[in-house]
Amino acid sequence: MRSRLLVLLVLFVLSQLVPTAVAARARTACAEGRGDLQVITLNLQFTRVWGRGGELDTLAEYVAGSEVDVLLLQEVSGGLLTGTSSTADRLRRILGERYGLTYELVYAPASGVRGLFTVGNAILSRCPIVTRRVRELPQVAELRVAGAKWRIHRNLLGVEIATHRGPVAVYTTHLCADCSAAQRADQLEDALSFIAAREAGRDRPVVFGGDLNLDLFRDGGSERRLYRRIRASGFRDVAAVDRPAESLCAEAASPDAECTVGVADPYRPRSRRIDYLFTRGPIGVAGHRVAFNPRIDPRMKAVSNHAAVAARLRLASGHERIARAPVGASGL
Predict the structure, then answer these.
(1) Bridge-partner residues for 111, per DSSP?
(2) What CATH code would you report for 31-319?
(3) Comparison of pLDDT for 283 and 332, the residue scoring more
(4) Where do the structural domains in the chain lie, given as residue ranges?
(5) How far apart are CA 236 and CA 226, in angstroms?
(6) What are the DSSP E strand ranges found in 126-165?
(7) φ and ψ of 151, to 5 deg
(8) What is the rounded CA–CA span in Å between residue 289 and residue 297?
(9) Overall pTM > 0.85
(10) I want to staple 284 with a disulfide (CB 3.0 to 4.6 A). Which of 72, 262, 301, 314 is the partner?
């Protein structure tokens, strides 16, 4: 009888210790002592796997020096032809071996042949990844080969991470490029509907970002309705918290610090802002910048044909309701 009671007592004590162990892991895994979550989104440009090299080393140096907690990556490639399971995993290993940083990784291949060559989205996180979900988006014929257009698979990758101040949902995607605004809108609607269903009844911070191929000035502003749709879902553009969105990268021939293509390598005659980070829920935007844009900041090296969007996000203790930074009238 005594031995049975002793076993029950030990089991009870252990059951009480489990949540503490998980919380301790989360506290020390990311954003320790800062209260902020450092996030970046970047299209890695899958063709660079056969390029000059060194881009992942440059990216890893920035990630380590900036104490980035979460990376949203698009055009991640993997398979036999790349010589690695994925470029995101190669980056993860560089961060671990060179800087002693541990990141968890989820890679969601969208197109290609498994084991041979794939391209998709990935999320690297210093915070423990608790759950993961992948949503395949409506297919669009956009790959031009021998005079024909072939359908490309694209997806939305979502994870829940355990931060030092509670769970945070993170989603990333890469919307179609060589497609119409209507086709891009269909993919965006599918992604937003999936996020809405996943987040229904939850009041937790949500981060949504990636290469949306959404240009507010293309075709006379025909894609602004897509931007309005994102805003109508409760999301805030980290770059337009205190200024109108239409003031950012407004002159294609004269790029500014908010442009994300045409400012990296190679330069383009017309620069655009097509990469975004959005937030929703009890989370504030403490700061943001565009990185890897040597046309604007010669001190930066290019790691892709896209620049990265980085943000410092303020998490409240226990996700208590925090004061919002004023949102500038977008005019959209």
Answers:
(1) 119
(2) 3.60.10.10
(3) 283
(4) 31-319
(5) 14
(6) 129-136, 140-145, 148-152, 155-163
(7) -70, 140
(8) 11
(9) yes
(10) 314
